[in-house]
Amino acid sequence: MNSIISRQRALRDLLRQTRPMPPKETPPFEGVGKTTAETVNAVCQVPEHACSVRDGYALRTDDIERATVLKPVRLKVKQAIHAESRNPKSLGPGEAARVLTGGPVPDGADSVLAEENIEINGSFIVVREPVRKGWFVRAAGGEIDAGIRIAQQGQIISPQAAAVMTRTRTGLIKVHPKPTARLIALGSELIDPTIHDDPTRFPADNLVLQRGLFESSGVTVIDATVVPDNKSTLISLLNDTTLPELIVTTGGTGRSERDFAQTGALESGFTMLFEGVDIRPGRHVFAAVRDNTLLFGLPGPPAAGHACFHALILPVIRRLRGLPDQTEPLMARFTQGISARPGSEWLVQCTLKMQGSQLTATPLAGKEVPPMVGLSQANGLAILQSGDAILPGEEAEVVTTLF
Question: pTM, whole model, 2 decimals?
Fold first, then answer.
């Protein structure tokens, strides 16, 4: 294979290896954040029966159509209905029912008078003005009808959608489980990012960066660890018989005697998909596969890992989660001009922002923006081809986890 391939070729090779996670059945409340494997429809209508939306009295509008201040109408209160009441007695002429919010409206009644609009006189209510039919009554199916689509296939289940599924008595739903990932930061100079009292080594910021990117994209990170410059330790980790769907190593992708990420993967039984991609930053990224596990070897600089995640790993995550592939590029209008040097495809850190209905991109590049300052402010990357020159107001493709 060619040692350096295009990003488009790398994506094709990766997606050929990637299938959505096999669907599993789960109750709606456990499906939040997961992707539907089939369309979910409401099992029942809500409310199941006409109900009151106020505390008050259910009655027949025909009984009070002639009510006035001077000639009020008296109605006999025959029963009290609560939200949990079922099958209340029908109302006859001249009768009313005390009903609380959410309580079913009895047969015969067609409206509800709020309690502040009536006068109570013993076991009677006194009504001094008429109301129209349906007043303060929510009809059966008034919130949602049976069979209405709640979530279509390939949609991430929101808490709201899960709540509606639950209320419409949906049982188990088929979802694609979240993929899992293991993160490995290579380097004897690194220390676990939770340790702050060792001045001789550097906190593994790549673990923090990649964990955040993976988790914000719907992946469960099962482990994030630092591995010193010892190939046998890496091989031992990669030889685990219960590997997750995704493994990411950071660092060790160069060509020095201490760069063993690729050889460690090969000696662990992984097959190389590509050894480098024609992007900057991130040219030395590689990918390999073994059984159902994809391994990405990212360069050590965090900005390169940030770029490689968006350009190569994010589409794989979407496929694993059962989300539809993005067929149309996401475009943003540049607030400042920028040019790309010849020779590679460039991934430029940007701040993305919605201004009205327009997505805008402000590049974080150049000598005036140090790499780590740009990384701290970036929420997306612009994809520029070799030699591109983008003027203020022109558009270019961007990638981001925001949408």
Answer: 0.89
